[in-house]
Design brief:
By secondary structure, this protein is α/β, with parallel strands linked by helices. It has helices at about 15-20, 40-45, 50-60, 70-80, 115-120, 120-135, 150-155, 175-185, 200-210, 215-220, 235-255, 275-285, 300-305, 330-340, 345-355, 365-375, 380-395, 400-415, 435-445, 455-465, 490-500, and strands at about 1-5, 15, 30, 90-95, 100-105, 140-145, 165-170, 190-195, 225-230, 265-270, 290-295, 310, 360, 375-380, 425, 485. The protein contains 21 helices and 16 strands. About 55% of the residues are buried.
């Protein structure tokens, strides 16, 4: 299978080439020429398989120039028991008396966030892709992060031979635990840089670096090529498709659904990659009724789903769900491509409108296609904290702030729609990663103020009965390794400096 650009001006490339280069040569995103299909019988056959085996049913459909042996080795290395406990993506029933609500927990990996499911696999896919191309250059991974992608990428690429990872994060735009995870990161090939701006500034800067031909030529002369670990890279997105199939297979195995019975997925999202993976799974044949897109106060996606108008010309808010503090959702470009019948001309015009005017408007037919599948909603900080407490009171489950946004949005959707479809709530991070807001929810407003992260983590563990993830224990005692703070226009020079050190 080849991959083509959403903007139609680049040559088709193989799956390994798509992963190696990260972004299309014309600035668009790479998408499969066709979306592979999977039958209900094949889905049913996954019910008794483990996660690795399920991954090896889905990944080869997209990664056609990787051998089965290459994929098996990559999957075994990425999803072994030493990295994910108790499993990569377990499904948990919220209440044993309620067979309608389940959580898909994606935070049991080494950095306690859903990004691990993709970023533990991506280094293996990328290094194999480089070998296939005959390239001997060092691959530098550039990442803009709103919190979780950065740490997961650093952990995935740490000390991988022939690679380096440079992560840019918004200064004062991530949680304290997320920041500590990154700035204490070990690995001689890992670099972390704070940007004086928000996530959109960091993301725009990274995109500009990829589009900079002079920088690419300069680095290539030094034996270095750039690639991406953000979800603009297909190698980030395709592993995420797997866990939606796996969740459905778990419900089949537990006899909670019948084969072919549709389910809902509730997905908190900012950059749109996680919920787009669910859309691809649905398009492949996974029985899905609605995809419920949950936003925070930066509700550009919620508004877009409601009226088809994508408008980034609005105030940017820092919230207690920092991983969704985003106004430009890069992965939405892939969905626009599909909503408009794969018209690259339309996508180019919409992206031009967004860049030059700050907004664009869907035509009615495309909007109807969008609303046939997606439901949008948002929650503010107070509603998020309230939902954490309410969910804990009724189910004894403690969730992080982003997952709580999903519950908040779904509650209002269910009340107005009467939809009784069985629903999986995608839990994107451990509650310990957002200890300040979660502690305020559990112990009372203002409780976290003046208390250290270590204290909050220990108190949360005692209250919830959850085991504190090893990656978060003792964060404040670890030595600081990365203390760079730059202006957003200094990203190019910073990359130069770091790669020639």
């Amino acid at each position: 299978m080849n991959y083509i650009s959403t903007r139609g001006q680049g040559e088709p490339v193989s799956s390994s080439a798509a992963i190696k280069q990260g972004i299309a040569s014309d600035g668009g995103l790479l998408v499969p020429e066709t979306i592979p299909q999977i039958s209900l019988d094949e889905i049913a056959a996954m019910a008794t398989l483990d996660y690795q085996q399920r991954a090896l049913r889905i990944l080869p459909l997209y990664l056609t120039d990787y051998s089965q042996e290459e994929l098996a080795e990559a999957v075994a290395a990425a999803y072994g028991e030493e990295r994910f406990q108790p499993a990569p993506a377990p499904v948990v029933q919220l209440n044993k008396y309620n067979d309608r609500e389940f959580m898909l927990e994606l935070w049991h990996g080494p950095t306690a966030a859903f990004k691990d499911l993709a970023l533990q696999l991506l280094p293996h896919l990328l290094t194999a892709a480089v070998r296939k191309s005959g390239e001997e250059a060092k691959v530098c991974i550039l990442v803009a992060t709103s919190g979780d992608t950065g740490k997961a990428a650093l952990e995935g690429f740490r000390d991988v031979p022939g690679t380096a990872a440079i992560v840019f994060y918004p200064h004062e735009g991530v949680s304290e635990a997320q920041k500590l995870q990154m700035v204490t990161q070990e690995g001689d090939n890992c670099f972390v840089v704070a940007v004086n701006g928000n996530f959109d500034d960091a993301q725009a800067g990274v995109k500009a670096l990829f589009a900079d031909g002079s920088l690419a030529a300069e680095l290539k002369s030094q034996g270095i090529i750039l690639s991406s670990a953000n979800s603009i890279n297909w190698g980030r997105l395709v592993p995420q498709i797997v866990y939606y199939f796996s969740a459905y297979a778990d419900l089949l195995n537990a006899e909670k659904i019948e084969v072919g019975e549709a389910v809902n997925f509730v997905v908190p999202t900012g950059n749109f990659g996680n919920i787009l993976a669910a859309w691809y799974a649905r398009s492949m044949g996974l029985p899905v009724n609605k995809l419920i897109c949950a936003s925070n106060r930066n509700k550009v996606l919620s508004d877009f789903i409601r009226n088809g108008h994508y408008d980034k010309r609005r105030e940017f808010y820092k919230t207690n769900t920092p991983s969704m503090d985003i106004l430009v959702s890069s992965n939405l470009e892939r969905l626009l491509f599909e909503l408009h019948g794969r018209s690259t001309d339309t996508v180019r015009q919409l992206m031009k409108d967004l860049e030059q005017e700050g907004h664009y408007q869907l035509e009615q037919q495309a909007l109807r296609r969008l609303q046939a599948v997606f439901v949008g909603g948002f929650a503010d900080d107070k509603g998020t904290v309230r939902t954490i407490r309410e969910l804990y009171d009724r189910s004894d489950h403690v969730v992080d702030t982003h997952t709580a946004v999903g519950f908040n949005v779904y509650g209002r959707y269910a009340a107005r729609s009467g939809d009784e479809t069985k629903t999986l709530f995608v839990a994107t991070a451990s509650p310990f990663k957002f200890s300040e807001a979660v502690s305020d929810a559990l112990f009372g407003s203002g409780y976290a103020k003046g208390r250290s992260v270590e204290t909050l983590l220990q108190e949360m563990a005692g209250e919830s009965g959850l085991e504190l993830p090893a990656s978060l224990a003792g964060l404040e005692k670890r030595p600081l390794r990365h203390e760079r703070l730059i202006e957003k226009d200094a990203m190019k020079e910073t990359v130069r400096q770091l790669l020639t050190m």
